[in-house]
Amino acid sequence: MMTLKDFMDKRKQGEQPTTEEAIEMPVAQATIKRIERKEDMDEHRKGVLTRAKILAKFAGIEFKARELVDEWILVTYDLPATDAGNKARQDFLKLAPRIGAVMHTKSVYLMPNTNECQIATVDLAKIGNVYIWTSRANDEASKKDLTDLYDERIKKGVKEIKDRMTSIRKHMDKEQNGMANRMVEKTIDIFNNSVFSVVQRGNAELYNMLVTMRDELQELQHEVESKV
Predict the structure, then answer these.
(1) Domain that holds residue 15
(2) What are the residues facing 116 on neighbouring strands?
(3) Cα dist. 114→44, 54, 202 in Å?
(4) CB-based contact 155:109 (threshold 8 Å)
(5) pLDDT (tens digit per residue) in 150-178
(6) In the beta sheet, which residues pair with residue 76?
(7) Does residue 34 fall inside a structural domain?
(8) CA 89 to chain centre
(9) From CA 160, how far away is CA 153, in angstroms rounded?
(10) 102-124 pLDDT tens trace
(11) DSSP 101
(12) How many domains does the chain have?
């Protein structure tokens, strides 16, 4: 099974993972193929392609269902109230959800301790004054509390995707297709974040929910793109 690092190394070398190596992500793959066929790609389309390839980076991550998570990565930061510190804080807050880190307390973020998450935290550590810790929950109550907390944070992201898809359809009904298109792009990013979090967590219920939403989002994306 290909790891996230293997996948990224392949991409750097200009190679594309095989279908067998890739997790099924038709939203990303369809977008990449559709955009790459266009000879005259403006800057906006380049941005869409980049986001689609970010979606596809989760190729090779195998989903393994588990009821509770007992090993965690804790990410903390201590940034000064300066311009540089504020920028670093914004960089952290932007990157954290992309790698499956959810807020535990004000300056402590939590994510399952998996190989993919360990690799993903490398970019967080580069921000400065960001510290990575590992922890194990030794009793069932602690495991359940932390797992429930993580699941609740993921569910908020899933709900946001649903709400955004409803809003996109409303914009389309009003022929506000430009707004709908921009919302689709952002919604794909949020979906991307949720997929990574759910796969690392191993929540089968949320995973199946995202599989259904993926197909709905792909259909919605096609509808919007046909109107812009």
Answers:
(1) 1-62
(2) none
(3) 35, 19, 11
(4) no
(5) 999 899 989 999 999 999 999 999 999 99
(6) 108, 131
(7) yes
(8) 19
(9) 11
(10) 888 877 889 898 887 887 777 77
(11) -
(12) 2
Give the chain's radius of gyration (CA, Å).
Answer: 18
The CA distance from 138 to 227, in Å, is: 54
**Residues in Cβ contact with 130 at an 8 Å cutoff, skipping those fewer than 6 apart:** 75, 76, 77, 92, 124
Q: Are 58 and 25 in contact (CB under 8 A)?
A: yes
Question: In 3-state terms, what secondary structure has residue 118?
Answer: helix
The pair of three-digit structure tokens given for residue 223, joined into one six-digit string: 């509808």
Q: Report the alpha-carbon distance of residue 140 to residue 127 in Å, rounded.
A: 34
Name the H helices within 42-82: 43-56
Locate the DSSP E strands across the chain.
71-77, 102-105, 108-112, 130-136
Task: Please give the Cα distance from 192 to 213 (Å, whole number).
Answer: 12
Q: Is 134 helix (H, G, I), strand (E, B) or coil?
A: strand
| Cβ atoms within 10 Å of 89's Cβ, excluding its own | 18
CATH code: domain of residue 118: 3.30.70.240
**Distance in angstroms (rounded) separating the CA atoms of residues 69 and 203:** 10
Question: In this predicted structure, which of 46-60, 78-92, 125-139, 195-209 has the lowest mean pLDDT?
Answer: 46-60
pTM: 0.66
β-sheet with 130-136: strand ranges across: 102-105, 108-112, 71-77, 130-136
Residues 75 and 135 in one domain: yes
